[in-house]
Amino acid sequence: MKKLLIAFGAVVLMISCSQKNPFFQEWDTPYGTAPFSQIKTEHYLPAFKEGIKQEKAEIKAIIDCKEAPTFENTVAAYDRAGALLAKVSGVFFNLAESDSTPEMQAIEEEVMPMITEAENEIFMNEDLFKRVKAVYDNMDGLTREQQMATKKLYQSFERNGVGLDAEGKKRFAEISTKLASLSQKFGQNLLAENNAFKEATGITVSEYYDFMGSCPDRAKREQVFKAYSSRGNNANENDNNGIVLEILKLRAEQAQLLGYKSFADYQLSNKMAGDPATVDNFLQPIMDASMAKAKEEMKDMQKIAGHKIEPWDYSYYAEKVRAQKYALDESQTKPYFQADSVLKGVFYAAETIYGIKIEPAPEVEVYNPSASAWKLTEPDGSLIGIFYKDYYVRPTKRGGAWMNNFRDQEGDIRPIIVNVCNFPAPGEDPTDAQPSLLTIDNVQTAFHEFGHALHGFLSKCNYKSISGTSVARDFVETFSQFNENFAFVPEILAVYANNYQTGETIPAELVAKIQNALKFNQGFTCGELCAASILDMKWHEMTAQELEAFKTPQDIRDFEAKVCKEMGLVDEIIPRYRTTYFNHIFNSGYSAGYYSYLWSEVLAVDAWEKFKADGVFNKETAKSFRETFLEKGGSEEPMTLYKQFRGADPDPSALMRARGLK
Ligand SMILES: [Zn+2]
Fold first, then answer.
1. Model pLDDT for residues 263-296, shown as the tens digit of each residue
2. Catalytic residues
């Protein structure tokens, strides 16, 4: 009888299990990818709660360990902890960005404080810190990778307030929790404002630059410019002014608690650049060169326009000059850049350079019908990882383009990585199918994001905390920007840039025009990027006391104007992002870090100069690049790796040369 009961019990358990939360089960799916169709909104919250609970128990086991602290029983054990939390976070946070719903947003609001609190608890735990410090204080005998993992973990404690007294710790934790929810709110407001922008203007945020370059109706351009540049600043329920000020003040207070003068000082202290002054001194010469160039550019534009160039005229007349000077009009190039063909080019470049293979993986489920799954393998057939391509714009996706992991690389566990973009969606009506045709900028974006993906895919690290793209912010953009260089290499274009109607390969003459035009309009392009980088620095270089003076939206406008004037930005250009829609710095980890793009670009351009010198398809150079950087993740100091590859320090003037500013 008893036996029967158990058997009966087992059946009941199995049935209820199969209806239960997929996050609590092993995923019996190809390559352990997420079974998206089985995951329902109601599964997230219990999985997060259980994930946090399990992580706490795993951390407690590390603390309670009776043996003396070693790398293995402390740092490596910490690295392995939180597997369930990583599993649910991997799915949830990707979908919350790329396929969000009001329900997902509500969950996000609920889980963010829980996760932040759990993290705070870990990094303020003195008993755990004591063990980590014991390992950190005597790293002899550890591998370089183990030393770097230990150092990173040790710094995480210091940077999260483990050294504070009880009162300081309490305040630090309160601020962290508050900041997490404010950032979420900033992002959600911006999503609503982006959708409102589309309602009001008929174009999406990602189509903005394209539109401004091509719309002949000046009044319409002015309307679109004003709507675009006032996002988050419309005194409505999605206004971000108050949120921005609260975030800045709390960040400054938190940095001060840790003994830093400003948030920028705190942020820079574990980056390649090291301190705010180094960044400021790096940016200003780029700004000066960009503005000198912009003034030249505007002279040409002025001649065509016959009137004063306003900010809403810049791109439009720039396109006119481009058509005149370079005879390049993007309507000529777009037919060669159908999104699917471009993807083929992105893959072909990676396959050719690194000798890997990329093929469709229809057996892998995707989370949205417009996404697709791919498998990357080594020549011997071993798995490199699984890639999701999610290229097309939709209302549930936030603006911009990004790479993210669903699963990190760690030992034998191979990564699962996504590239999300906001390219124009192909028409839905199959009888009148409009293909997705990309701009030159879109094409660069596709190569850029796959550069990040390769950094994640080719990683060969033992610990996930330092694998793949888990490197300093101002180093991580090196590999994405480096990969952009392959987009317009003639041999690669010959493979992918085929006219979607005739199949004809892009003519050499058009390729030459594209290459010439890449250096075009750099006063504007580099100027607006540099201006946003400086604006970011100036906001975060202020002390908590200085920020107290800021109270109203007008104070924010006045500060922006003052900073732009001081950096020498011309009136015809505004920063790439203004404060109330600067998602990178208020909701995406680039705070006091937007300069990273330019900083990494120096490394990317300098590395590319070596590729050019050795021959772009030189197998030895590619092998050295792969082994020195792409396989190493954060297992060595960036500058050490750089010098290993290049044999010298990076040369900052390479950036200005590459952009045609010098
Ligand atoms: Zn990037």
1. 999 999 999 999 999 999 999 999 999 999 999 9
2. 449
